[in-house]
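Box S1 | Example of a co-folding query
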Amino acid sequence: MKTKITKFTAALAMAFGAIGAGHAATITISCGNSGADYETCKKHADQWAKKSGHQVKMFSPPASTTDSLALYRQLFAAKSSDVDVIMIDVVWPGVIKDHLLDLGKFSKGAEKEHFPAIVANNTVDGKLLGMPWFTDAGLLFFRKDLLQKHGLKAPTTWEELTAAAKKVQDAERAAGQKDFQGFVFQAKAYEGLTCDALEWVASYNGGSIVEKDGSISINNAKAAKALDMAASWIGSIAPAGVLNYGEEDARGVFQNGNALFMRNWPYAWSLGQAGDSPIKGKIGVAPLPKGEANGKNAATLGGWQLAVSKYSKTPEVAADLVMYMTSAESQKDRAIVGSYNPTRPALYKDKDVIAANPFMGELFDVFTNAVARPATATGPKYPEVSQAFWDATHEVLSKKTSGAESVKKLEGRLKQIKRKSW
Ligand code: GLC
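Box S1 (continued) | Returned holo structure for alpha-D-glucopyranose
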């Protein structure tokens, strides 16, 4: 039955010239690792299939970016054509560059409509390896109602956040909410911890692990201080279990009404505001705090692109799907339905997008000034660099070592990874 329908649709599309000279192809797209991502990805892919006469198959990657990268590397090693279109993390282009198609040949200049910095990030050796799909930056989500109840304002420094979290946590626990937490974030040993910890370090002016010129900067007193501060939260304003939290674990606690503050990405907004959310209407969003008064607000730059595997048997058709999925129309819908930040500056002036996500307008600078992980500087070695950093951070958070000892050891480890050059 399915084949009959396929043949029928293909014949119809051919008759109307939608496919031109080609045959109907089946494109497998890998997407849907968080929030409303799967739904909207499927919706837009299905729209494209209907319009083009081709077929789409959905492939769900693991929720963690670290696990997804491992999976794709296996597929690439086998030159597998199982997946045609892949969602790739902003830190991957230099790592998997040899396995992706140059989309510049198919984009007809559409990349000019996206933030230039993201396009530059996705361009390796002159090849456009991914079309920007959505961008991310770390944000501080908080309970507006609870801050007001306790006479507090959104914190501007981590020291203020720590004090506010303690005060509200103590009061809410005393009032009977025994599991109430001051602050939840991502501290599992994976890429998400690299993002959170880079924010702490950069907010104390402690640099960004490896700098743009390739120099290793992490062994400094400010970075050590930032890590020690985060360690002080564990078991105090944050549950010990946070050492095993990814994005969705933190969101679960916050969205159930059990935390005052949460560090997360923008997607958490639409889910927290959904009809069935216990905290709908009670969420505030602010830039992540500074490290002391002379520090700076630092949000790690995240985000995802759509890429075509070099091993796809129908690269042109796959590229056509990518262009559809990254169009202004699709990005607008994803912003409204799932609070995924567009990569097209023009959409930040769209009144529907801003009405659904006021923070996208109010915190525009947070998105344009976000701190990049050292992926460009370290190229193919980035995953090793990141793992060394998240392992070092996890040891400090688990109170096995101090910030100062840990950054010193990490410097040595990074020198080993670098050897003569990145
Ligand atoms: C988000 C970001 C991505 C980052 C990941 C870490 O998905 O968009 O860039 O690597 O979180 O967990």
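The radius of gyration is 22 Å. Residues 1-5, 8-21 have pLDDT under 50 and may be disordered.
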